[in-house]
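Regression check, nicotinamide-adenine-dinucleotide case 386:
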Amino acid sequence: MVSQFNVPATIISGGGASQDVGRQLLRLGATRVLLVTDAFMIASGVAEKVTAELERSGLPFAVFGGVQPDPTDADVREGLAALRRLQGDAIVALGGGSPIDAAKAIAVLAKNPEPLSLYQGYHKVPLAGVPVVAIPTTAGTGSEVTKVAVITDTARDVKMMMLDRHFLPTVALIDFELTLSMPPALTAHVGVDTLTHGIEAYVSSKATALTDPLALTCIRLVAEHLETAWREPSNRAAREGMMLAATLGGMAFANSSVALVHGMSRPIGAVFHVPHGLSNAVLLPAVTRFSLSGAKERYATVAKTMRLCSSDLGTEPACEALVTGLVELNRRLNVPRLGECRGVERARFDSVVAKMAEDALASGSPQNNPVVPAADQVIELYRQAF
Ligand code: NAD
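Current build output:
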C-alpha cells in the first residue's frame, strides 16, 4: 500500500511554547497577522497574552474572536472578511479544534475559490493557503498537527470533513500550560476524543508502520494521564501527558484515518449540536464492540497498551476487557448516554436517525473501519448508544 505522511514543518512543544509565536511569524515572513480565536479565549485573557507577543515582535494584527464551538461556514466567511480587511498574510489560530479548524479554512479560502464545500472530502484543494501558526488550548483534537478541517455546511446541516495537506498548519506551538484551565467535563470529553483518535488510527484499514507507534503511544498516554487530569485540573504532569497524547493522536489519525466512531459522531454534532468530544465518547464502547471481529489482535493490543488486562491474556478475553474498560472509563468520567446529552430528544432522534446513518456512511470514514457496516447496522448502533 502506498501512503502519504504529512505533519507541520515545525512543532515546538513544552510549557511556555506559545510565547514563541512572534518569532515564528517573523521567520515565516509574515507582515500582517489575523488572530483567529473564540469568545472564551478573549474573556479569559489568553488571547491578550498572544497579542502582547505580536506587539513585541512589531507585527500589525487584527483579532477575529467569533468562532463558535463546532464552527460553521458562516464563521469562516466572517473570518475571511476580517483577513481581507487587514490584508493579512498569516494567521494565528488559538483555541480548541474549533478556532484551529476555522483558521485553516480561512487560510485556504484566502488563496482558493469559494465555496468551502468544494473541498469536502479528500485532496481537493488546488493551492496552498496563507501560513497558519496553531496554538491548541484543549487536549484535544490534535488539529494543530492535522491536514483535516471540520466545518458545518449550514445549508445542508452536514459537518464537512476536508482532508488535504494544504489544511496543515505550518507551525504548531504546543503549550500544555494553556490547558490547565479546562474544567473536568471538557477534559473528559476531549480526552476520550484523543483516545478515539489513537484507537481508530490503530485499527483503521489505512494504518501504516509510520502511524502505529504514534497511535499506541497516544493510547498509552491517555490511559496514564486522563483520569488524573480530570480529577486534578492543575496537575502539570497529567496535562502535559494529555497534550502530547492529543498531538500524537492527531498525527496518527490524519495519516492513517479515523473510522466508524468519527463517521457516526459528526451527524450527532450537526443535528443535535452535541460537542464533538462528547459525541465520540458516547459512541466509543458500542462501536468498539461491533468492530472487534474485524481486528481482534489489534483491539487486544489496545487493551494491553491501556493496561486493562495482563500482557499474556488471550486475544478474545483481552477484546472483552477492552469493551468493559471503555464502558467503565465513561462511567468514571461521568460521560452520559447519547439520550442524556443536552438537546437530544427521543422523538427527534427517531425521525433523523436514518439520515444520520446515511450521512455517516457518506463521509467515507466508516469504510476504514475493521468491520464496514450497512446502514441498518449504523442505525442499530445509534440506538444502542442512546
Ligand atoms: P472547541 O474548540 O469547540 O472548544 C470547546 C469549548 O471549550 C469552547 O467553549 C472553548 O472556548 C472552550 N475551551 C477551549 N480551551 C479551553 C481551556 N483551555 N480552558 C477552558 N475552556 C476552553 O473544542 P475541541 O473539542 O477542541 O474542538 C472541537 C472541534 O474540532 C469540532 O468541530 C471537531 O469536529 C473538530 N475536530 C477537528 C479535528 C481536526 O483534525 N481538524 C480533529 C478532531 C476534531
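Comparison notes: The first strand starts at residue 10 and ends at 13. Residues 38, 40, 69-70, 95-98, 101, 137-138, 140-143, 146, 148-150, 178-179, 181-182, 186, 190, 250, 276-277 surround nicotinamide-adenine-dinucleotide (CB under 6 Å). No diff flagged against the previous build.
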